[in-house]
Design brief:
three-stranded parallel sheet; mainly alpha; 51% helix; Rossmann fold
Length: 137
């Protein structure tokens, strides 16, 4: 990617940070206007929730893991998996429309709150308790 950016004369528009320690991830996500996740096979990636919690537009492949948290056009943008033209169109749509980015970012942050530890942890504990009860009786 770095070579491609240099070859196309756009290297100054990008920063390739390399490995980032996990506790610093929110600072890096907050530097972005758009987070692109073009994976073709992913469960619910943590970066989906991190980008949304930072109120950033997430452009992701239209795969089951992404659809769990993205409502296309509302809490992120989905593109047809493997379709470079659709990925380009969705990325340019977000890049060229700061109002859309702000709207999607706000809605994504609000929606992602259901995944907070305060809400998710009790649900996991309850599920584990149910499993234990089922195997005890």
């Amino acid at each position: 990617m770095e070579d491609a950016c240099r070859q196309h004369g756009i290297a100054e528009k990008f920063r390739f940070a390399g490995w980032v320690d996990y506790e610093r991830v929110p600072k890096y996500v907050n530097l972005a206007d758009i987070v692109v996740m073009p994976s073709e096979a992913e469960s619910q990636a943590r970066v989906y929730l991190e980008a949304q919690a930072c109120a950033r537009v997430l452009v992701a492949s239209d795969i089951p893991g992404a659809r769990e948290v993205i409502e296309d056009g509302e809490t992120g943008l989905l593109f047809r998996t493997g379709d470079i033209d659709d990925l380009t169109a969705k990325t340019l749509l977000a890049a060229g429309n700061p109002e859309l980015r702000a709207k999607i970012g706000r809605q994504a942050r609000e929606r992602v709150r259901i995944h907070s530890l305060d809400r998710a942890l009790p649900a996991h504990v309850a599920a584990l308790q149910d499993i234990v009860r089922q195997h005890q009786g």
